[in-house]
Amino acid sequence: MIYLCYGVTKSASTFLYQITEEIFSASGLGFCRLSHDGPLQMSNHYDTIDPSLITRIAESAGERPVVLKTHGALHPGVADMIAAGEVLASASIRDPREIALSMVDHGRRARANGEQAFAEVFDPTEALFALDMQIEIFTRWAGVPQTEVFTYNEICFDTEATIRRLARQIGTSVDPARILAPFRNTRMIGQFNIGRPDRAAEMPAHMQAAFLERYAAFYARMRFDRDPLKAATTSEHPSRTSPTTRPLRWLKQEIADHRRLVRRLMHSRNIGIIRPD
Q1: pTM of this prediction?
Q2: CATH top class, domain 2-270
Q3: How many other CB atoms sit within 10 Å of the CB of residue 108?
Q4: Which H or E run contains 102?
Q5: Which long-range contacts (CB under 8 A, 24 or more apart) does 73-79 make?
Q6: What are the C-alpha distances in Å from 60 to residues 91, 131, 216?
């Protein structure tokens, strides 16, 4: 079985991917890992996925499931495979305002650490061009009726319901508490940022108005707000640390990344290097 996890940037797509692999593991089916980006890679990530790649991965995996992660466009042939039930798929999305704010956060960290990804994003409006493209790509993935669509708020703040939906789609039954157990420490979640709900309120009103106007048709189709009562009872997520605590934070994250890698190696089977044509 091949499961495709597509996600818009900053939509908790990595967490959804990890949960999906965890469901396969807990159900007794296990899952396979690939090593095209090195033997110690944290996910089966591909920039592009086409039918040929899926076929070759499926042949190598045999009966064992493989979960693939991507931010890339939907190939028409892959859309046909999803519609025919030959592969399963999910798509994750987030309020564009919150994606832009998260990209600004990432840009700030990237510049501080001398990294390239998102370093050019200083202001939410500088994320608009990337958002235009990603929303168009998401719309194509979500447009396949068989694709299970999840919002960031569902993934992060109604995670047990998300797990039950994924399990039903896969055709299995799991205990959500068991699936969530490895992620109680948020450092075990890949690419975890701030994890704070309802971040759109942090954006200035005039800027929010510009986003709401630009993506009016998209907002009309999607629902991003949460139940106010549920929002009020959500447990707090870690806040940013001060500069004096960054070395300790870095060390704790390194330890968590190592634990996450070791755990993944123990719970999966390596099927080697399979690259796109």
Answers
A1: 0.83
A2: alpha beta
A3: 15
A4: helix 96-113
A5: 73/48, 73/137, 73/140, 74/6, 74/137, 74/140, 74/141, 74/144, 75/48, 75/49, 75/50, 75/51, 77/50, 77/51, 78/4, 78/49, 78/50, 78/51, 78/54, 79/140, 79/144
A6: 25, 35, 44
Task: Match 């990603």 to its residue by tokens.
Answer: 134
Q: What is the pLDDT of residues 161-215, one digit of tens each?
A: 999 999 999 999 999 999 998 887 666 676 556 567 788 889 999 999 999 999 9
What burial letters (b/e) apply to 134-150, b meaning 16+ CB within 10 Å? bbebbbbbbebeebbbb
Structural domain spans, the chain: 2-270
Q: Are strands 88-93 and 148-151 parallel, antiparallel or unpaired?
A: parallel
pLDDT digits (tens, 9 = 90+) for 7-65: 999 999 999 999 999 999 888 888 888 886 666 565 789 999 999 999 999 999 998 99
Eight-class DSSP state of 74: P
Helices of type H across 27-95 = 51-61, 76-83
**Coil/strand/helix, residue 245:** helix
Q: Are 190 and 260 in contact (CB under 8 A)?
A: yes
pLDDT class for 119, splitting at 50, 70, 90? confident
**Look-up: residue for tokens 């048709």?**
217
